[in-house]
Specification:
- This protein is mostly helical.
- The chain has one domain.
- The chain is 62% helix and 2% strand.
- The protein has 9 helices and 2 strands; from the N terminus they run ααββααααααα.
- Strand 1 and strand 2 form a beta hairpin.
Length: 310
C-alpha cells in the first residue's frame, strides 16, 4: 500500500504538502473516523494472544532494569519496604508518553520515587528508559508488520531504529516544551493569587487548561512518527498530522480506554504486593512487570490505530 496518497479534488493539496492548522484538531467529513472501542478491544485481544511473545520480549529488558534497581538500592541507604518505587513513565509512543501519545505516563504511576533516603534512583530511571527503547521498537514492529518482523530480533538490540526513535523523542519533547512553558506561565498568576487569597480572573487559568489539552492532542498526533519509525516507513510531522486529521479526540479516548483500567488494576496489584511486606526486589519486579505490560498495551493500541489510519 503506498504511504502517500493524493487527496481527491483539485482544491485540496496532496498529503505530502499538507500543512496543519488549529482547525485540523477537529473532525472533518472526508476523514476516516477511528473506531475507538473496536481498536481498544483489539489491543486487549492482541496482547492476550501475544502474551508469550510479551514474556519473551520483556524478560531481558526487565531483568536488566531489575538488577540495576537492586544494585542501586543496596548501595544506597535503604529505607525499608513500601513506598513508591522509582520507576519512571516509559518513553513516548508507548501509549501515550509525556512527549508522545497523550502526554501521559503509561507506567504504573510511581515515577519519581526514591530508592532510599539518599534521593532519586537515577540509574534505575536511566536503565528503565534505555531498556524501553528496544522493547517499544520491537513491539511496534510486531503490531504493524507482524511476527516475522521480530523473529530473530534480539530483545536488547540497539540499532539505527532505536537511534531514530530516541532522536524523534527528543525532537517532539523540544517542540512541545515551548507551549508547555507558555501554558504554565499563564497559569502561575492565577495559582499565586488563589493561594494568597487575592481575587484573580479565572480567564488565564482557563486559557492554560485549554492550551494543555491542545498540547495533549498534539502530542498524540505527532507521536504517530513512532510506529512509522519502527516499521521503517516514511517519517515526518506533516505525515503524522495528516493521517490523524479529525481523530484527535478519538485518539485521546482510545488512550483512556486502554490505560485507565490497567492502571487501576496495576495499582491494586502493586498496593497488595507492598501491603504483604514483600522485599524490595519482589515489589520492584511486580512494578516493572506491570509497567512493561502497560507499555505493550499502549503501543498495541497506538500501532493498531496507525495501521488503520495510514
Amino acid at each position: 500500500m503506498p504511504m502517500w496518497k493524493e487527496t481527491a479534488g483539485a482544491d485540496k493539496l496532496p498529503r505530502r504538502l499538507y500543512r496543519p492548522t488549529i482547525l485540523s484538531f477537529f473532525p472533518t467529513e472526508d476523514r476516516m473516523k477511528l473506531p475507538v472501542v473496536e481498536v481498544a478491544a483489539e489491543a486487549y485481544h492482541f496482547l492476550w494472544r501475544q502474551r508469550r511473545t510479551l514474556v519473551d520480549r520483556a524478560s531481558l529488558p526487565l531483568a536488566v532494569v531489575l538488577i540495576v534497581g537492586i544494585i542501586e538500592y543496596l548501595t544506597g541507604t535503604p529505607s525499608g519496604g513500601g513506598g513508591d518505587l522509582p520507576v519512571p513513565a516509559p518513553p513516548p509512543g508507548a501509549d501515550g508518553g509525556s512527549a508522545g501519545p497523550g502526554g501521559t505516563g503509561n507506567g504504573n504511576g510511581n515515577g519519581g520515587g526514591d530508592a532510599g533516603p539518599g534521593g532519586p534512583a537515577l540509574l534505575l530511571s536511566l536503565a528503565y528508559f534505555a531498556m524501553s527503547l528496544p522493547f517499544l521498537v520491537g513491539w511496534y514492529r510486531l503490531v504493524v508488520l507482524g511476527p516475522g518482523a521480530v523473529a530473530g530480533r534480539f530483545p536488547l538490540a540497539f540499532t539505527r531504529l532505536e537511534g531514530r526513535f530516541l532522536l524523534w523523542m527528543v525532537v517532539i519533547g523540544l517542540v512541545l516544551v515551548v507551549p508547555l512553558v507558555i501554558s504554565g506561565a499563564i497559569a502561575v498568576p492565577f495559582a499565586t493569587g488563589d493561594i494568597s487569597g487575592t481575587q484573580v480572573s479565572p480567564v488565564p487559568m482557563l486559557l492554560a487548561v485549554a492550551m494543555f489539552i491542545l498540547l495533549i492532542l498534539a502530542s498524540l498526533r505527532l507521536s504517530f512518527v513512532f510506529p512509522a519509525i519502527a516499521a521503517e516507513e516514511p517519517v515526518s510531522f506533516a505525515r503524522a498530522w495528516e493521517i490523524t486529521k479529525g481523530n484527535s479526540l478519538r485518539l485521546l479516548g482510545l488512550m483512556a480506554l486502554v490505560h485507565v483500567p490497567v492502571l487501576v488494576f496495576g495499582a491494586i496489584i502493586e498496593a497488595f504486593a507492598v501491603g504483604l511486606g514483600l522485599p524490595f526486589s519482589l515489589v520492584l519486579f511486580v512494578d516493572l512487570a506491570i509497567s512493561f505490560t502497560i507499555m505493550a498495551l499502549g503501543a498495541t493500541a497506538f500501532g493498531e490505530a496507525y495501521v488503520r489510519l495510514r
